[in-house]
């Protein structure tokens, strides 16, 4: 390898920067989660104020994307929908900038992800996160009575879902193309290592077989597709009922034991086919509940066998890699129930985020593993050259660098739920709903006299209150938002 002395010096500098960056990210996540669990959304926003870049300059959109995502959802929870939409717009700019830079542009060119680890790349959101961005924006626009803008967002979420397989394939293809360019020694070491049965066996033993994960048959964020279906079911525009039928049927197929989803799919099909008339349908109320805290990534470290090429010879070596493995956090076990004019309605669970993330990670895992192996191979080659040219000092320095920078990318949007729950019923004559848990009543919600009403509830933890939005699914009226479970109940906006 060329310029080993420079490479080792650069490695030391990058290692120091990586440590500072990783510590900052961990601190932000911890502070956000502490406030988020308690329902202190102003403190959660403050914890995610984007830190200045090097030299004190403001980060560009793609470099503050993770912080902005967290701030946006906290603003939505506070009922500050204008600010939430503006932040989600900024997040989408960052997502587009990330798309245009190329999925593997620096894979073999000494880029941060290879020389250090994935956590030092600009944050690339999971596809499920980008879909939820559009879903949450759609809800905020509906809350404001901006039906046309809500339609755009729900359609974008649906489009991202439909293009999922193509997106995953593009990521893997970009990485494979990068392996065909650049330094031949590095490429051969990476390619041959990835192809080896010994490496694949090591991954299977220490990380597990991704083919055995609990996943959906195809990529979907069921809650987003469900909201897409409800929006178009309530729409009066020509042809929208067909869209509603397709989306609601797809969600029902993914959760065959959920009677609410099945009944919604049957209603959409009956309206679309003309078997059911809107005029004969009583005003409908849907309750959709975001329950608990979504999955987070934890690090799995283990050694893998590599084949390192030096000229025309190959040398076996063992070195460590670190991969992210997602695990569930906590759902609220205190079941939510709805009482309306003496009738009690039970919500049925669907759309577990752990299953959504597993489905996505299973498709993206070849790319994640490829970057980890590329990083390990490049570091191993640096160690070999440093030992050859600098002796024990070079070997020790490069080994310390490799050990200190072998980390998995554990970043994720921590404002997602464990799962969603849903129910539907005719609007009660009194227009009053009482929300209760086993611990006692949360509060009462008054329903406007709308033909299609969505009561959207989000409660990350039993330690904090529930945020409740009453939304006109037809987007003709401004919604209302309440904080329930606090003392006293507070109307946000």
TrEMBL record:
Keyword Signal listed: yes
Keywords carried by this UniProt record: Signal
Organism: Vreelandella salicampi
The protein, known as: Lipoprotein
Lineage start: Bacteria, Pseudomonadati, Pseudomonadota, Gammaproteobacteria, Oceanospirillales
Signal peptide: 1-18
